[in-house]
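User: Continuing from earlier, I have the next pair ready.

Assistant: Great, send them over.

User: Here they are, in order.

Assistant: Folding the first of the pair now:
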Amino acid sequence: MKNNFLMPVLLIMIILSSFNCSKKMGSENVLLSDFNTIRNVVPFDKISIDDYLPAVDSLIKLTRLEIDEILANRDEPDFVNTIEALDRCGERLNRVSIIFFNLVGANTSDTMQQLAQQISPMLTEFQNDVFLNDKLFDKVRTVCQKKDQYNLNPEQQMLLDETYQSFIRQGANLNEEDKKKFREITTELSRLTLIFDDNVLNETNAFQLHITDEKDLAGLPENAVEAAALTARSKDLDGWIFTLQYPSYLPFMQYADNRDLREQMYKAYSSKGFHGNERDNRKNIKRITELRLQLANILGYETYADYVLERRMAENMQRVNAFLDELLDASMPFAKKEYNEVQEYAKSLGADFQLMRWDWAYYSEKLKKEKFNVDDEMTRPYFQLENVQKGIFELASTLYGITFKKNSKIPVYHPEVTAYEIFDRDGSFLAVLYTDFFPRDSKQGGAWATTYRNQFKIDGQNIRPHASMVFNFTKPTETKPSLLTFDQVTTFLHEFGHALHAVFSDCTYSGLSSFNVYWDFVELPSQIMENFAEQKEWLDKIAVHYKTGEPIPDTLLDNIIESRNFQSGYSFVRQITFGLNDMAWHSITSPVEVPVEVFEREAIASTELFPPVEDCLISTQFSHIFSGGYAAGYYSYKWAEVLEADAFSLFKENGVFDQATAQSFRDNILSKGATEHPLELYKRFRGREPKIDALLENRGLVEEKI
């Protein structure tokens, strides 16, 4: 994501509470001072919620003065006094904005959400003032026209190109009438995308399944029942409460024998933002996509997807659609077989009905156990969170020689958050890393990585990053520690890969550092780490029974690895469904007139395996594309899977724990940010362009590939 305020891109996902701290205003506002803290970290313990608005207001004014200095410089515009100066200015405003919006996602409150509705338009207005400033753009354009005179290195050339393109793509070439409209569109979009996210979170928190009859718990594992009882007690209720937070929702769907309750849970989960109430997102979707289309048209593009994909590896809609179609052709025959297999299996257990979506996880889990003698509840006792974390940190030490040191003196934004210092092989400081593991009402769902400070270099100093990983893992109960499913172990590895992208960054300019890369390249570092979840040598080190201390049995370990491609066709089709839905919404050439549910069903018809369920939609809760950074970009998950499967094949050729291969990946990918085109970085690591073959082979989707 782009953390440089003057060179934004749509956010991964994702940024994102309030604190009971002493009130500080005016000159005492801690956000307006240098952070006198360990490693210059955010002083979360000293920030008051009342600090944010005056800080943003003051820092916008300060950054305007920095812009005025660039404009007042009478020297001939050049790379240093214009392009570098733009990259440097607004650093404090950028940092405070990042802190605020990170916390809106990770530890929010009604007050924070209301505050976001004030701050976001302020930032949008200021951003427009910068990019729509004719005199400033004239300076940037002058430098761009004379770039051959400056003998720029590749990183400087990339910064110049990104700066110039950012101005163009943010309306610098528009006439005054269109600039005014551009301002109106971007301001409204900043408001609506926040509302969309707030609605999803509030809808998630609004539902609870309160069970008082113990027979309705049939089939559920002890861990899920105990967690539900704990939730009920926290709300001063008897019985058991299941919520739409994933650690509660998923086990219920996998194991609850009561089909009616599974249906109730599924419909509650899948109808978020689709209830005709004040949190309904259908109007927001139509307006957001209409505004994005207007923005694209003003800038000279036929569709919003055309606008977005111009600055992506995929380059255009035709290539994305061809890519998704190729994957769908390869995976759909397998997905249909898998659906039929589960349907027949369910019938063998007495199910005399057509399989519906609320049946899928339940019967799939039973089938998986029968075929491979493995399920989440068999493996969960061996994946204690603390052991998994220790194993992942040790894996990074093995590959890259880095070490982690917990530092309880570093302030954190919530008692459940832990801070670590990371040191390089030679003992030098690399980064701060925050971990935030468990769900709460104040946190968005899912998992993500972000930064509180990007890496950059200035005045001979290498300013090191502060990264954060946020999860929604199963919470500890009164009798058990946090025990992860195998999928959660994989998720941990995924977000840790993102974090390493920030940790190893070694760039000069903040706007190009860390994961500020093309959106369809950003998932490569994260997804390549997922491969280690399938390495027996590594699993054997982390998987120890939380009660007995016994290592995981070899047979169970073998079964985990053997089952890795279980229903991979279905999984592929599910992701392609999201990608096609995204591309449909962002390739419109006129506002959508039909109901949202009709539009969505037409968009994903080629991927459907189940009968449609009335009042259930993907779009009304699809935060990735309507409030995050994945608009016209959700395909990038699969795009990056092609890259990571091909890249990891080199690890397998040289040995998956080979330090030389890991060092090459660090040197050519992780440390480079966006300093060069991602395809050039990839080829430098792999020795050639990526091929799709490794992905299809790894996922067992080769036999029927057309």
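And the other member of the pair:
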Amino acid sequence: MMMHKTFALTIATVSFATVAFAATPIRLEAEDAVLADDHKVLVIEDAKASGGKYVDMKDGNLEFKVTVPATGYYTLWANYQIPSESTSKIQNLTVNGVSAGQISFGISDEFTTIKGAGKIKLTEGENKIGIVHSWGYVNLDYIELTEYEASPWNISPTPVTPEPTESAQKLYNFLYNNFGKHVISGVMTERPFENDGQYTPQNYETQTELKYIHEASGKNVVLVGFDFLHASGKNSDQQWYQGYTHASLEMAKTVWKAGGIPQFNWHWKDPMHEVEAFYTQSSGNDPYTEFSINKAYDESTGKWKTSSDEYKAIVRDMEMIADSLLTLQKEGVAVLWRPLHEASGKWFWWGTDGAKSCVALYKLMFDIFVNQKGLHNLIWVWTTDEASDALDWYPGDEYVDVVGRDYYYYPRESNHSSLVGSFETVKEIFGGRKIVTLSENGSVPYPDEMKADGANWSWFMPWYGDYAMEGWANDNTKESWKTVMNNEYTLTLDDMPGWDKYEIVTPPTTGIKNMPLAQKASARLSVIGKNLQVNIPSFAANATTKVTIFDMQGNQVINHTINGTNASINLNGIVAGHYLVKLHGNGFTQKGKILVK
């Protein structure tokens, strides 16, 4: 969480993601969506653009009108361009006047098609889809709608940490079994100690955000967020800073003993202790640090510069945080651990040097924490965005238990929609292999909205202060907390059995629902050069699989039959662009989208 929240995106590259399929997409031209009274946008004629025109949105808005015959869910695609001399952008997405999330636009010198929203709901008759200025200046050619089709989940029933403690096994099992059935209530805390000069740890009755929610709703949240904000850095040896960290650890023990879940993130201050800051210059915050991972890491060789002062400082800080977490492990407390959050935004120093260096830093932390310090009580949470290079920043399935999305409306507003578009997009980016959560947020989605849309976030955690409590933006008010906390879909502290009583139950499939065998695994598609690589799930490997490729207008361009588990299909005969792929094999059908360059 940025203390002064801003949004930025990373430079985009194209990657494969499983998607919905429709033989005839509905194409809506951007020039037809210009509002009559909006003089901020600019329509530009271009023979290469669909319809011969595209729209330079600048800081204006577009409104598309589309009529559908029946109420249902659709996938939204966007064809756009942002020149490389600019920066990647975010625009807000609305459906019938209600916020449906955001669309992430990465750098692309040529017009390219991306999935703008994995799932949006349209109602019978005319609908209005808005692309609303946020961090704008996008050249938009058109949007397309295809019929939404759910993709399968394939979540591991065990955490990634080897030999996890009993408490870690219980915590992960709890997340696993409730995913898709309930949302776990949570909130971030600002100050964990009493203002008594003794740094006396607070509890559910005294801590500001927790007390506010209980008074508003009559219920206590399950998940309580803490921060190692003051545990490292230039001033970390001072009494107040140490008191903050000590109180955070003591409160975490209190939360666990009450049947709750402690979450820790780490706003990691300059490891060289030159400045008391974790922000970068590009964040617009002052003070800021110029600390660089690459002073400790060599990207070209993939090796750490172990003799450098920067490497030694990184390791010193990691070991210090590990020692703090070990105090929780010794008392049987498990923790949701969310390090290096929001890295791709590059407003924190751990993202400044790019994805490769950040991933190396995360893996170094995993090795030091688990293999060197013996931490086995952590459930590892990775914070992603929805940009097309999100997987470049991902440490890998073997290092991550839960994938989280930090979501704040900008401009700030009170909006309790389900955020199903973001939920579905994150699910598909990571292939349905990880639990998906709302790791930070402003307004809490209303439970009935989440249930109706299938936006099954594992938990929510609004940031502290006026994000969690009434303030100038009223992201969350007492009335909204009453609505959220008194819904049967929301798990509160009253619903928790207590960790000493919790029994691990491992169902035959994921915690979402029982699924037939054919849905437990999916084929993997990737384009390498001018070849489509297809990897078939093992249960279908002994039969033939039909692969059909269509262009975005629904015309069949390739029909191919393969045997076995792997195949390579030559794509030299088709022009560059996006294509829809349909696979039909032994007991499974899968649909996806590829980019041919």
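Worth noting for the second one:
The chain has three domains: 20-147, 168-495, 517-596. The chain is about 20% helix and 30% strand.
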